[in-house]
UniProtKB/TrEMBL annotation, chain A:
ABC transmembrane type-1 domain mapped to chain residues: 105-311
Family note: Belongs to the binding-protein-dependent transport system permease family. CysTW subfamily.
Organism: Mesorhizobium sangaii
Full protein name: Putrescine transport system permease protein
GO CC annotations on file: plasma membrane
Primary site of residence: membrane
Subcellular compartments: Cell membrane
The UniProt record lists the keyword Endoplasmic reticulum: no
Keyword Transmembrane: yes
TrEMBL record, chain B:
Protein name: Putrescine transport system permease protein
Keywords, ordered alphabetically: Cell membrane, Membrane, Transmembrane, Transmembrane helix, Transport
Record-level GO BP terms: transmembrane transport
Residues covered by the ABC transmembrane type-1 domain: 62-252
Pfam families in the cross-refs: BPD_transp_1
TM region(s), chain numbering: 12-32, 64-85, 97-125, 131-155, 176-198, 233-254
Species name: Mesorhizobium sangaii
InterPro entries reported for this sequence: Bact_Polyamine_Transport, MetI-like, MetI-like_sf
Organism taxonomic ancestry: Bacteria, Pseudomonadati, Pseudomonadota, Alphaproteobacteria, Hyphomicrobiales
Keyword field contains Coiled coil: no
Source organism, top-level taxon: Bacteria
SUPFAM superfamilies: MetI-like
Membrane topology: Multi-pass membrane protein
Subcellular location per the Swiss-Prot or TrEMBL entry: Cell membrane
Length: 323, 272
């Protein structure tokens, strides 16, 4: 650093030149910091959605890729505009005609909503207990909540098959203790899907809840208690409203991916389950109908636009607050 | 603050953690089962681990998964760190809203949509499905998670350190590599770990974007689970859990040691 001071004193002219160069360089590097991830995400995230939309308007064909191309630039700009005539909304019409798709959308939203509420009920006491735990063990508890997140999602879902099977561990336990006399059928029912979603997404709920409960000023509760407020109503009037940002973030983090969930309904729900992620998967892999699966994806995306925008806004607001 | 840890709080935490960990513990226990049944205990045995290592398909898939994981996590860490810098340092530029939308949306986007859209992109640009396409897909997904992790560290970063360095004549680039990068390094390391485990874990996006010869371990496990539950899968899962657990423990120990060292340095500096 003494070097820099010496140079600036002895040769002010060259130093000014250097600083202009450095500033130009910095400006360029600064631009690159934005441009590289921006271009990457445009190319691998935004453009793919446009392609999905485009293909959802094309017709199924027996070829590879299995659809007729639309809106290509092969014939130049005029060919592109002429292509608008070839667009077909058949796939969307097909989705409305077949009750299967409508039912799958509705079922997915209902299952996701119920599971979100269940996850909130299970997660809230855990987050609350963690927030009130002695400050010395809080980091350990936090680590223990995050740790399952690092182990494979597929493995955690798979672990439940062995537990919920008719001859599985849960039934063995219940039969042995004499609580039930007939094995319960849980696997391949909606109950199994609820258990699977609550289990897999629990950390997503607990973490935002914990971070808003930990920030809370608990002297408020004591003040309410001193003024004669019973604990339950103190909870509903003070704790819960103050934790609302965490509740909203947690619910969105569970609800949005749960609507399009594939692995859980496929492995725990059995073949009868009607959920949209599974329907899309089957259209794509079993029926090889790319245009219809694209149309399913477009509608699913539209369905989730509102909650996703909410999520993004909540994130942006949290960002502002942190500053 | 008066922290009373009531019986209710302790109970809910104990039950909660039992719910989170019991299924994984049972899975591990039954991977050492002598019996072919996954749910009836027939004595201790490690034979499933032995047969695992003779399963060529599974070993190939493991190798593919490890390579995809390391390569994609590395690229995702660089891109995600740049994205985090953009989000925290450049608050005003054209298209910022779109940018933050593109960073946060993949975190919640159902995987079937991401997988399908990436596949259609690869088909549109004529890229054959295989190792490269899975890797590109994983970079895109995991860089957003890295961005969030690194961003949370950058937000609490004391910028006067950077200003001091630049006042003393360091160029912005030098400042970044000598001051900023070392400070946010723990977040970058845990971002890499997160990206690696997400890539290791992914079934849906890999199924869409992978092609012949690039079957990943989750795809292999999934196809075997569909045929039936066997202790061999339990053994494969246990190894995967062990790898991740060791990695996380090493990372957190290293993190803690660095933290202790930093505190010692600060104290030494104060005594000066």
């Amino acid at each position: 650093m003494s070097n820099a001071a010496v140079t600036s004193a002895s040769a002010p002219a060259t130093n000014a030149d250097q600083s202009i160069l450095a500033r130009l360089g910095a400006a360029f590097v600064g631009r690159l910091v934005i441009i590289i991830p921006y271009v990457w995400l445009l190319f691998f995230f935004l453009i793919p959605f446009i392609i999905v939309f485009k293909i959802s308007l094309s017709q199924t064909a027996i070829a590879m890729p299995p659809y007729t191309p639309v809106l290509d630039f092969k014939d130049g700009i005029s060919g592109f505009f002429a292509g608008f005539g070839a667009l077909s909304f058949d796939n969307y019409a097909w989705l409305t005609q077949d009750a299967l798709y409508f039912n799958a959308y509705v079922t997915s939203v209902i299952i996701a909503a119920i599971s979100t509420v269940l996850t909130l009920i299970v997660g809230y006491p855990i987050a609350y207990g963690m927030a009130r735990a002695p400050a010395t063990i809080r980091p350990t508890l936090l680590m223990l909540v995050i740790l399952p997140f690092w182990t494979s999602f597929l493995i955690r879902v798979y672990a439940w098959i062995g537990i919920l099977k008719p001859e599985g561990l849960l039934n063995q336990l219940l039969l042995a203790t004499g609580i039930i006399s007939q094995p319960l059928i849980i696997l391949n029912t909606y109950t199994a899907i609820f258990i699977g979603i609550v289990y897999s997404y629990l950390p997503f709920m607990v973490l935002p809840l914990y971070s808003s409960l930990e920030k809370m000023d608990y002297s408020l509760i004591e003040a309410a208690k001193d003024l004669g407020c019973p604990p339950t109503s103190a909870f509903w009037k003070i704790t819960f409203p103050l934790s609302l940002p965490g509740v909203i973030a947690g619910c969105l983090l569970v609800f949005i991916p749960a609507v399009g969930e594939f692995v859980i309904p496929d492995l725990l729900g059995g073949s009868q389950t009607l959920m949209i992620g599974k329907t899309l998967w089957n259209e794509f892999f079993a029926n090889r109908d790319w245009p219809v699966s694209s149309a399913v994806a477009v509608i699913l995306l539209l369905l989730l636009t509102v909650p996703i925008m909410f999520f993004q806004q909540a994130q942006a607001r949290a960002q502002e607050q942190d500053k | 603050m008066n922290t009373t840890w009531s019986r209710f709080n302790v109970t809910s935490i104990v039950l909660g953690f039992a719910f989170l960990y019991l299924p994984i513990v049972l899975l591990i226990v039954f991977s050492f089962n002598e019996s072919k049944l996954v749910t009836v205990w027939g004595g201790f045995s490690t034979k499933w681990y032995v047969s695992l290592f003779h399963n060529q398909g599974l070993m190939d898939a493991t190798w593919v998964t490890a390579r995809v994981g390391v390569i994609s996590a590395t690229f995702a860490t660089v891109l995600g760190t740049l994205a985090a810098l953009t989000l925290t340092r450049y608050t005003r530029f054209r298209g910022r809203l779109l940018f933050s939308g593109m960073v946060f949306a993949p975190l919640v986007m159902p995987e079937v949509i991401t997988g399908l859209s990436l596949l259609l992109l690869f088909v549109a640009i004529g890229l054959d499905r295989g190792f490269l396409t899975v890797t590109l897909a994983h970079i895109t997904l995991t860089m957003c998670f890295v961005a969030v992790v690194v961003q949370s560290r950058l937000v609490s970063f004391d910028r006067s350190l950077e200003e001091a360095a630049m006042d003393l004549g360091a160029t912005p680039v030098k400042t970044f590599f000598q001051i900023t990068l070392p400070v946010i390094m723990p977040a970058i390391v845990s971002g890499w770990m997160l990206a690696f485990t997400l890539s290791l874990d992914d079934l849906v996006i890999a199924s869409f974007t992978s092609g012949p010869g690039a079957t990943t371990l989750p795809m292999k496990i999934y196809s075997q689970v569909r045929l039936g539950v066997t202790p061999e899968i339990n053994a494969a899962c246990t190894i995967l859990i062990a790898v991740v657990a060791v990695g996380v423990i090493i990372a957190s120990v290293a993190n803690k040691r660095r933290e202790v060292q930093r505190q010692l340095d600060e104290r030494a500096a104060q005594r000066g």
